[in-house]
Design brief:
Elements (H helix, E strand, L loop, with lengths): L9 H38 L2 H15 L7 H7 L5 H10 L7
């Protein structure tokens, strides 16, 4: 019987999968945050509704009891969306379609 077909190898296989997932999750989260930032920027540029954007994310943070400014290591390891404070700061930097 081949080694991979032995049921005793299952715990080792699960451990390897878990370790691989832990190693890859910061990269996956960074990619997800990158796409989220692109979506936020696109929404602000297309609509120009900065106040509505800010209000929506402030309400979301309050309802979800989210930390608006988590530690950078927490963001790097666990967060797949940009922190609320970063999203609110983005509203100040993106130019609306009318230029203001």
């Amino acid at each position: 019987m081949p080694a991979y077909a032995d049921p005793a190898a299952l715990p080792l296989f699960m451990f390897v999968l878990m370790a691989f997932g832990l190693l890859l999750s910061p990269a996956q989260n960074a990619l997800s945050r990158y796409f989220e930032r692109q979506c936020d920027r696109y929404a602000l540029m297309r609509t120009g509704l900065r106040d509505a954007y800010r209000s929506a994310f402030q309400k979301l943070a309050r309802l979800n009891k989210a930390d608006p400014d988590p530690h950078p290591l927490v963001v790097w390891f666990f967060e797949d969306h940009p922190p609320i404070r970063e999203r609110l700061r983005l509203a100040d930097t993106v130019q609306s379609p009318s230029g203001g």
